[in-house]
Design brief:
The structure is a homodimer. The first copy, chain A, is 61% helix and 13% strand. The first copy, chain A, has 6 helices and 3 strands. The first copy, chain A, binds a DNA duplex through helix 5.
DNA sequence: TGAACATATGAGCAATCGTTCATATGATAA
DNA sequence: TTATCATATGAACGATTGCTCATATGTTCA
């Protein structure tokens, strides 16, 4: 410790979410913290897209994209539907757009 | 590649931000992607706080907190002021709160 | 059934990350 | 100046991450 902080700590501590939620928040933002995944989310911004289209668009291997889509899906950021051999992914949530938009604003002002 | 995607790729590609911005977005969210840094930002949610108070609050070493504050400052998420020996940190931006709030909403619904 | 296509997945490896430990910097007070 | 307090920083190490490569799964069509 160091100098005295009075009642400040107790007050702030009372307003903090539970540790598990803080962990989940970190894990969620970790998914946003990679350029490849950001590109994938932007690819799906307007409309759904199949895996190989995403791969071609962002210039990455089908395998790499598939691995990242798995992360995104685990975080409930994308959803998918099958149509024959093809699987189409889409953003599952408006939060994706608003989170990215807030980040965008932070950078460009 | 694989099957044909017609004009879809060109259309979506035209709407994508420049690579450098996408990289910056990923780097920004990477800073949110750690529980310790999330805790620090929550600690500063209401008011500024000195380093040792943050360390005591979240139960981490002064050194660890200082390292993370450096990351947060490099991303323009916190700012600081000196008062004698003590240095007070605060959130530098309302985007911090709104980004975390969006993440929170995504998790809790 | 077998071939071709679209996607998923496991292992392995280089790179990045977050903490610890020791030490440096910077400010105050005696 | 010297001692002490508050914070910052560099090196080192274990843990996690994202890609590649090879291969597996699942679907369609002949």
């Amino acid at each position: 410790m160091a100098h005295d902080h009075g009642a400040l700590l107790d007050h702030v501590k009372a307003d903090m979410p539970a540790d598990e939620l803080l962990q989940d928040l970190g894990d969620l933002f970790k998914v946003f913290g990679d350029t490849t995944r950001i590109k994938i989310m932007y690819a799906l911004y307007e409309d759904e897209m199949c895996v190989c289209a995403i791969a071609e668009l962002i210039g990455m291997t089908q395998s790499a994209v598939s691995h990242q889509l798995k992360s995104l899906k685990a975080a409930n950021l994308v959803a998918s539907r099958r149509e024959g051999k093809t699987i189409y992914y889409r953003l599952s949530d408006d939060h994706v757009k608003s989170i990215i938009a807030q980040g965008y604003e932070h950078l460009t002002e």
